[in-house]
Amino acid sequence: MMNERLRGIVLQQHKYSETSLIVKVYTETRGLQSYLIKGAFGRHSKLRPAFFQPMTFIEFVADIKSKRDLHYMSEIAIETVFYTIPFDMQKNAIILFISELLSKTIIEQESNSSLFDFLHRSISWLDLSKENFTNFHLFFCFELTRYLGFYPKLDRNENQGFFDLMEGVFKTNAPSHGYFIEPPMSLKIKQLCLSRLEILNEIELSNTYRHDILHEIITYYRLHLPGFNGLKSLDVLKSVFD
Fold this sequence. Notes:
This protein is α+β, with helices and mostly antiparallel strands. It folds into two domains: 2-78, CATH 2.40.50.140; 85-241, de novo design (two linked rop proteins). 34% of the residues lie in helices and 22% in strands. The protein is built from six helices and eight strands. Strands 1-2-3-5-4 form a five-stranded mixed barrel. Strand 4 (57-64) and strand 5 (70-78) form a beta hairpin. Helix 2 runs antiparallel to helix 3. It starts with a strand and ends with a helix.
């Protein structure tokens, strides 16, 4: 057992008992980790539940036990205080959606600094954005597939208008199976993949169209991640944007 100072991003918390929590944290140097927070609901606790809201950036000291799945924290501090996420209904819904998505897709317990930086940079951008962030979760879903191993293979050839969900490629003709997206939606998906956070607002989508694309993204994840069975937060996200 050793004490180690870590940076992390909270993914989820679950009540373990009347007084304790189990928290999933994606750490910069150790990947996905789970921690038992004893006495979190106690009046004098230094590790209060408020520290473990979804996607919160934290710095902490942990007792790392080799060959164990559950570890312990002894110190904690908020690395970055969010300015808008806690007070914006749409941003809050996006955060809940993203935290559930990450909890169901990230399993590695080893360092992946590129993924950590992507999460940190993306959530920071969402918090600081003042408007035009309604396409953020769609862009995020596709960018995340870079790190999960099934990012769409892009070709700027405008004739390749069918997106094959099974192969993750754009094709000139519709594939023989039923898992594909036709134009013009496939072209919007290509736009999202070729975009950047700073220019996401240039992609014009109605709420209905945005919902339809998100449904196709979930299908894409199901096809490429064994055991992925959808997200409970999807309905909340849809209702907030309607």
